[in-house]
Fold each of these.
Amino acid sequence: MTNEKRIQQVALERGIPSAGPYPWMRIANKVLGKLGVPVELHRRFDHHNEMVSAEQVVNFDLLMDEVLSRNITGDVVELGCYTGHTAAVLARMLHAHGDTRKLHVFDRFDIELGRVIGVREEFEERLRRVNVPMPIIHQGDVFGLTPEDLPSAIAFAHIDLGVGGEIALHERLVLHAMELVYPRLSKGGIIVLMDFHLPGVTVKGNDSNPGATKAATAFFADKPEKMRPLNGGPCSHGFVRKA
Ligand SMILES: C[S@@+](CC[C@H](N)C(=O)[O-])C[C@H]1O[C@@H](n2cnc3c(N)ncnc32)[C@H](O)[C@@H]1O
């Protein structure tokens, strides 16, 4: 199986149904292959309506697998869950591992991006569709949280708070999110930060919300750990492992 096909397969298994080429592209790619044309057609990522790329799902798979198989203490949290694309992926991974730790999600649920109306309803519906226990939902503004509002130990955190708005506001929000999560993150625990992007290093992802990288760079300036970029295909993200 080619690397590309494996990436699509993992994404489909984790509940990202739109991953992969359209059926007609598969036929066209077969014809191109038979003709010996060294070209393949791909679906263009829709940055308005899709929240996670197939490549990012594979990265989540590897990083979550590491945390779970090393038995890192704590729950899983997501700050910025919107309609649950990535929460469904994380919940399915916990379920696949037979792991009973809790998944906590935090969001205002009143920011309608793309085509969606009724964000929380859509979140709950998506999670029901993938047949996993409903995460613990914390509805409200992340700026209003203190570390005590998060689980006392965290093994894995995903921060995804970008809505394509004001860069300075997003930077302050991600900095605040880091201040909430980092003190509660167990040794060996992992934070994945959506939109972390290093020009010239990030392979080809968009720099959709530059406040994320600014906040992470400032936050980790005096810490022993540093964020590392991942290859998220059309989307940028990065991670840090607590020393
Ligand atoms: C890009 S979306 C998250 C996508 C989500 N991870 C998914 O896969 O569906 C960003 C989310 O951050 C949330 N958000 C932005 N600012 C927030 C704030 N101050 N407090 C709580 N949530 C916030 C928005 O409501 C939105 O749902």
Amino acid sequence: MEKRKKTVRPFAVKVPEKKLMADLELLREKALELGAAGAEIIPANQLVVDERVRLKCIVPRCLRAGETPNCPPNAPDLDLVRKAFARYSWGILLKTNMEPIEDYAPGHLDKSGVDRTLLFHQKTGKIIYDLERLAYKRGYYLAMGLGGGSCKDYLCHGLVCQFKDSGRCRFPLRSRPAMEAMGIDVLDIIKKVGWDAYPLLDELDKTPCATSVGLVLIY
Ligand code: SF4
């Protein structure tokens, strides 16, 4: 009988430094391949979890606050988030630039008639899902991806949250809290890697870019 080639890696509990660094670089490159405009390996201890960020979801009140299980005040408690994040060592931070910016101005519909503003974080959400999956497949069983914005927008296109309605999420593996819902100061971490983000208000023609940010904690 022909011997089966075993190429699937076992789950990793302790990963040697050299192998870990090579895997992180591979995942960083994969993020770019998947369409990220930038991707950086970051030490997890550079993430700042700040109550003010979490509070900004309800002051002033975001349209999505409380509307999904992932949106504050329903997102995980920040003490749990801090304790869990302290156990990670490394992550991949990535960004996508949404172009042209004008397409994401309120009221701009895409070909299927969906308001483009709802889809602002869609591309990032897809990349973090794929990257988390790849990291898991390479043995990093605690890999955890977080995107931006509400899953009610970029996954459910503004429809009533089915989880809140019937307890069955439409996208159980893709749905997750946003970085900001977990209290992560996103602007602080992107500054640390040398990126910029801009307010998207009324002068879109003078705004250099519109950026969506995601994070996959790996190990
Ligand atoms: S049903 Fe939609 S809005 Fe509700 S948790 Fe799932 S993805 Fe989010």
